[in-house]
Amino acid sequence: xxxxxxxxxxxxxxxxxxxxxxxxxxxxxxxxxxxxxxxxxxxxxxxxxxxxxxxxxxxxxxxxxxxxxxxxxxxxxxxxxxxxxxxxxxxxxxxxxxxxxxxxxxxxxxxxxxxxxxxxxxxxxxxxxxxxxxxxxxxxxxxxxxxxxxxxxxxxxxxxxxxxxxxxxxxxxxxxxxxxxxxxxxxxxxxxxxxxxxxxxxxxxxxxxxxxxxxxxxxxxxxxxxxxxxxxxxxxxxxxxxxxxxxxxxxxxxxxxxxxxxxxxxxxxxxxxxxxxxxxxxxxxxxxxxxxxxxxxxxxxxxxxxxxxxxxxxxxxxxxxxxxxxxxxxxxxxxxxxxxxxxxxxxxxxxxxxxxxxxxxxxxxxxxxxxxxxxxxxxxxxxxxxxxxxxxxxxxxxxxxxxxxxxxxxxxxxxxxxxxxxxxxxxxxxxxxxxxxxxxxxxxxxxxxxxxxxxxxxxxxxxxxxxxxxxxxxxxxxxxxxxxxxxxxxxxxxxxxxxxxxxxxxxxxxxxxxxxxxxxxxxxxxxxxxxxxxxxxxxxxxxxx
Amino acid sequence: xxxxxxxxxxxxxxxxxxxxxxxxxxxxxxxxxxxxxxxxxxxxxxxxxxxxxxxxxxxxxxxxxxxxxxxxxxxxxxxxxxxxxxxxxxxxxxxxxxxxxxxxxxxxxxxxxxxxxxxxxxxxxxxxxxxxxxxxxxxxxxxxxxxxxxxxxxxxxxxxxxxxxxxxxxxxxxxxxxxxxxxxxxxxxxxxxxxxxxxxxxxxxxxxxxxxxxxxxxxxxxxxxxxxxxxxxxxxxxxxxxxxxxxxxxxxxxxxxxxxxxxxxxxxxxxxxxxxxxxxxxxxxxxxxxxxxxxxxxxxxxxxxxxxxxxxxxxxxxxxxxxxxxxxxxxxxxxxxxxxxxxxxxxxxxxxxxxxxxxxxxxxxxxxxxxxxxxxxx
Lengths: 545, 378
Known about the structure:
The structure holds 2 protein chains of 2 kinds. In chain A, 53% of the residues are buried. By secondary structure, chain A is mostly helical. Chain A has helices spanning 25-66, 69-103, 105-139, 146-175, 194-198, 201-231, 236-259, 270-279, 314-320, 330-356, 361-370, 374-378, 392-400, 406-435, 442-450, 454-468, 490-521, and strands at 7-10, 14-18, 180-183, 188-191, 292-299, 304-311, 473-475, 479-480. Chain B has 12 helices and 6 strands. Chain B starts with 6 loop residues before the first helix and ends in a 16-residue tail after the last helix. Chains A and B meet through β1, β2, α2, α3 and β4 of A and α3, α4, α5, β2 and α12 of B.
């Protein structure tokens, strides 16, 4: 075994070959920015597609059942807005499909055996269905029967939701890598139990939470634009019905997004526990049931949260669903990480011995015994190439790397959850007003209109919690983020960041402009008979352009 | 659970399935890109351009999923190929993605405003989204045929030692132009089939004939040139672990023709490439649109299959370290993953083909200037 780097002898082919040395941290930072920007941008469009597709299916169902023209008009108009949004969702999704290979090549090799499968299945099972039927949704109105078109819309919505399922199966595995094992012959993670990957509890929780969030976004979108029409006394019959649908569906979804929050998976792995402790800024383990900190100022230097306002018992009850379940604090988790790093050092040393001499059974056994901690050993590679040389101070530093940015987690969670609760109140109020046929309550309409940006804020913060909170891991406990990058030059990543930013920036401006135009134009050129309400004039003026 | 197929059988099956998926992409999304690329040449007026766009309007979105599926399937079945190809061709991939991004928005947004400059802008965007990816996909294949300058280190990290403009070498550009000819021919044949009689259809047929002849010529030159290229696997371990570091290969001029000696039936692929283009030419000439479209499809299948069977078992040879070369034997997923993905594909792909065929049937028929005023039309 040579000192310094991982070295590997291939009999008869090549002499010693150098493994990776230190990773260029600038490259890592840039690659992370690149991924975060493109993913956050993609996620501006995806939840709205999710929500609107289901709302369209609901509206068309009412149309097919009642045969009333206004419901068809609703499907068509909201469908137009859906289409403008869908185009950008698809465009930005193309980037996502190839980005793992472009910027995260080592990650792709290391986990492709597991992670690639749900992505491929997503294409086959979901995206094909969604994309094929979206063509019929827009172009098939006069070429299909009423029921035929309705079926196309419903399957389009099903495809959209299945798409989210498979993407979140892939993402859930990054958070909780079940059903897989490291194979020393191929130097990567391989599937051992695919059912475990699919039925991963973290993935399931994420799926419910994410699609519900999408439904909320779709409902807020429909509600806010309907409120805009009602405030301007335009398209009132159309807007009232849209508001009723949005409030009913939105209320159910908002309850689901909060009650079936993502937290149910937070007891499962060390990283998930760390995420929970970080977003609650809980430095030490508290006697069960733990209190919930409403607000406070997390202080990373001194390991405390200042000016904390606490609700006794609440956190223990919410996150463990019991009175005696413990919520482990950040510092005990760091100590635990130190142990795992030491075990990981043994695994890495044993792996090198096996690679130098595949017949070395003793080393193989040692590797098997410690391989579940190998990822923790890799954390040291941020500071040195030969992890067996790590000092106590190095191990301590690497262990503290497992703590995500507490302040960002803490505040992101509070804003996101606050918006979630706000939506329950908003939709409940709207639901009551719709039921009482008081659609024209102006203060409510104003609030509804100004709530329009909030679901995007909440969704992006949710993504930050899940992915930024997973740091320093790409795959929880298995592969640190900094090891996953492609061997690129920082300048190349700069180029694509600049390129995507310029392109995406332009497109978002165009999209918003087209949306606003379409909304201003409204569903009708002239008010048709089907949109009349008692008391309305029979001939309405043309809407102002 | 006992896996009913051996590892090497599954590896060959996935090699074939990947070919089917890439061919699926070429013959479906291929005509979308062809139409977009031909737009400034065959469609002169705004109405003509809208007619051309609306021939693909209802189907291009589904067609594009073949590309997404291709990305996902390579990731799942050949993780090292996914990692190597896209990180090595980093900037080229960026250019391809940026052009592809323009397409969905171009189709959707172009007709949203009457403004002439607006529409002219999106016409350029659509042309870019059709021409650039088709050219660069061909250039990429041309480079792969020559071998990419990459090596794997002991940890299987991919190191690329080439540079972007090195990709634009003469042989690769030839392959790029062949790719453009092949899919522009396909796009022209599609327009012949889908638009009503008029100047647009006539121009499409004329351009189609030019691209059919170009396809024949470029494919022939490419074949002669490729006879001087090639790699041979020295120690293939067809059922061994997926680790290129355990196998070796070397560059052997003429290597790409070795398979035809061993398996003469493989010559069907290049024959199909030539015959298809010839049939397409005749079809366009005698105004038999169905014949022309059949020919352009056959030609695309034949040309892509030729690349595949010539290189088998290689997927991405390395020009600077042939032993790092990725093959169907040393770069696949695990035995279990290949099997699971095979089952999933065998169940789902026929369903996909069934509803895709149904969608094409619903939208069947020629598109004329009346259709562009329908609500929902692009």
